[in-house]
Amino acid sequence: MILKSFDLADSTVKFVFLSINRSVVGNKTLRESIAKRGVLMPLTVIPVEELDDEVKLKDASTKQPITKAEALGGFAIIEGQHRYSELRHLNLIKELGTAYRDLKTTFNCLIVSRDEVGNVNEYIIELNSCSKNWKSGDYIENATEQMEEDLLIKTVNQFKMHGFSISTISRFICFDSKAITNKSLADYTNSNGKVVFRNADPIRAIKLYKSLRWMGFIDSFIKKRYLIDFIIHKYKVSNSLNPIMTRIGKLKQALRLSMLQDKECDISVEIEKAIEADFAEFVKEKALSLDDIAKRETQDFFVNFDKDDICEFLECEEGVYNNYYSNSLKSA
What we know:
2 domains, 54% helix, 7 strands, seven-stranded mixed sheet, alpha/beta, 18 helices, 9% strand, 332 residues
């Protein structure tokens, strides 16, 4: 490791961002600190030429993709891109002559080598997790950047884009709130998919979500744990989704249930009562026998969903879907 000082005014030294790092967002507190005292903590950087060719880079000013060849001779910021961005922002205002005339444009960098860092992605995750800077969204963003054609990661990311927490995403994909965590997501990413999530089935998760939306449940309710926990419980009892989904499919009160609040009632109890009541009414109307009900419960509830529905949800080409099933067959 080498500690070296740089000046933002020196345009001959180029600094770039790593796409695998989390996105930069404005930080007013950090900006005010830098405006007053300059950049206090050194940035951690690595010479671009020491990076693997497949590592994706972004221009530090435009945030647009940049090739390794275009960045050679410069440094990729491993830790400290928010500090660098805020300093650039303040320096631009200074150059316009409107403020910050006493801004300190010098900053220190801790230059690390490939031998010291090893796997750059693992190093970034360790740095941020140890300092508690990264949140679940950052781990998902990192995984998506690293494995953009992985169907499971695409599914995790799409659920995140719908506003789902990582524990609820884990519930939908693995029927387990603790299977997909920040750590297991990082392990999966760093192993290039070789680490397996317990009982993961992203296709099932998408079909289940789309079914619940079609039935009339609103997103804000589906994101809560009540409905998915109820479904998981029933699934574990029968080892099949079809019995409970057959019942939920006849529910007429999805919107009413979606409006329930914790303080008003026991939501889990209300869910079961409504599902059983509406299904009993359906059975009575159709005069179904126990054999009729059993037959319905053995039918695939998701039979009408195809890969086009999955690809539409994931906003991906069908090749991603086909690769997932091809790899699933190989590992089976």
